């Protein structure tokens, strides 16, 4: 007989399992600000494809990649609406550019770390930390948004994105200020030196209906830099940034 | 005094205005399957930028471009969830590819015409029909989805997309079958001729966090065709299609 307070091994095993499950539930509830219903969705959101890859290519739908696809779309919609309402007089190009600044890979990876998602992500332990690309966390964040959407509905997912991601961690105003930085810096430089600057723009349709733009900065009839982007503004911005480098400004 | 039944000119003017307004309201109600609240949003959805451009660049936010940005995101989310649920065992690449087949420019333009949106779109009359690009209708459809979202909420927008666009007009099953066409056709050809075929893949991050893939079809160590796309599958698909052309199959 085990001593009092010392549980049977089997009971201990179950208790550990249940305890882990309870701790995970608790972590998710804290993270999303409400009690999850289908905890399986959240487990899936934190399952990196390396964990299931051992079981063959067929098992890959049991990783977070599908939820990431869904969450990426939900996140994009919530941020689109947020910007649409916040900037009623700005054009589509500005909204597109700002959204890509908020939800790009790097930004998502940073947000995921701020939420501590790296502690929840399940990776294949045999691979070691070195193979862990930084995008793993950002992808898990997108998958988490997808899980909240399926588990709690659009409104809850929207609330999660706005109140737990955008409002506490994203300085949208500062982002808009850096947006115009390079272009206005280049204009100032040109005015100071009495030179004529213009942008040449070309758009090309990419597969999937996405347009890709190429902007060239033309200084006194000579192309000095080009940039590409998914909006006109983004392409011009990048071209202006490169032109400033080329001019040594 | 005007004769009975012959209204005062001013009254007639207002009646015509109100009548037009009522007809537009009716058209929108029929289109979306529910009574619109904020009719202004729908008017905006059908206002092409050419109409407001005469009033200068500042007025451009009064065109449907901003709603199009929002509606594009909502549409992408609804279709993402639809595919996520319909194909529980398919991977993210498949879902991405299928979605881009459903919501690409060409497909949206076709859907817009099926709904008769071309009759509602307001263009600058002085420009004439010749300048009307085919995308005008597809863009208006996206803007309409954005208007329904803002006016009636996500659930209503989701219902509109599923019950008025996808289910009546999109043959998703047929689309999945053409998806694998080119790749499997190429494999069949290679097997028949005893040749070795493989794909080389390269991924490149584009601004905005989008990945762009380039796939090359390698036949007996020689690259015979390449294709680009926003998913691996899409890139390989296009490369396979071009390889078949190059091989004269």
CATH architecture descriptor of the largest domain in chain A: Orthogonal Bundle
- The termini of chain A sit apart by 80 Å
**Largest protein interface, residues of each chain:** A-B, 46 and 46 residues
Calculate the mean pLDDT score of chain A and round it.
84
Please count the helical segments of chain A: 11
Radius of gyration of chain A: 24 Å
Low-confidence stretches of chain A: 1-9
Structure class of chain A: mainly alpha
InterPro entries (chains A, B): dsRBD_dom, RNase_III, RNase_III_dom, RNase_III_sf
Pfam family, one (chains A, B): dsrm
Keywords (chains A, B): Cytoplasm, Endonuclease, Hydrolase, Magnesium, Metal-binding, mRNA processing, Nuclease, RNA-binding, rRNA processing, rRNA-binding, tRNA processing
Active site (chains A, B): 72, 142
Brief summary of the model shown:
The structure is a homodimer of 249-residue chains. Helices cover 60% and strands 11% of the residues of chain A.
What characteristics describe this protein?
homodimer, 249 residues, mainly alpha, Ribonuclease iii, N-terminal Endonuclease Domain, Chain A, Double Stranded RNA Binding Domain, three-stranded antiparallel β-sheet, 11 helices, elongated, disordered N terminus, Ribonuclease 3 (chains A, B), RNase_III (chains A, B), rRNA-binding (chains A, B), rRNA processing (chains A, B), RNase_III_dom (chains A, B)
């Amino acid at each position: 007989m085990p001593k009092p307070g010392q549980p049977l091994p089997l009971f201990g095993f179950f208790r550990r399992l249940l305890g882990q499950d309870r701790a995970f539930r608790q972590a998710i509830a804290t993270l999303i600000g409400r009690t999850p219903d289908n905890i399986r969705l959240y487990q899936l959101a934190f399952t990196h494809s390396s964990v299931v890859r051992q079981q063959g290519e067929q098992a890959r739908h049991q990783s977070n990649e599908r939820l990431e696809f869904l969450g990426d779309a939900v996140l994009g919609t919530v941020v689109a609406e947020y910007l649409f309402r916040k900037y009623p007089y700005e054009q589509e190009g500005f909204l597109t550019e700002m959204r890509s600044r908020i939800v790009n890979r790097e930004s998502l990876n940073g947000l995921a770390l701020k939420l501590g998602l790296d502690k929840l992500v399940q990776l294949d332990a045999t691979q070691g930390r070195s193979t862990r690309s930084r995008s793993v966390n950002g992808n898990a964040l997108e998958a988490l948004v997808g899980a909240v959407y399926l588990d709690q509905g659009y409104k809850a997912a929207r609330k999660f994105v706005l109140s737990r991601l955008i409002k506490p961690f994203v300085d949208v105003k500062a982002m808009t200020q850096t947006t115009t930085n390079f272009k206005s810096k280049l204009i100032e430089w040109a005015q100071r030196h009495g030179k004529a600057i213009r942008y040449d723009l070309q758009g090309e349709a990419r597969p999937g209906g996405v347009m890709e733009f190429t902007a060239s900065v033309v200084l006194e009839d000579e192309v000095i830099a080009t940039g590409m982007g998914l909006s006109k503004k983004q392409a011009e911005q990048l071209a202006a940034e490169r032109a400033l480098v080329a001019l040594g400004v």
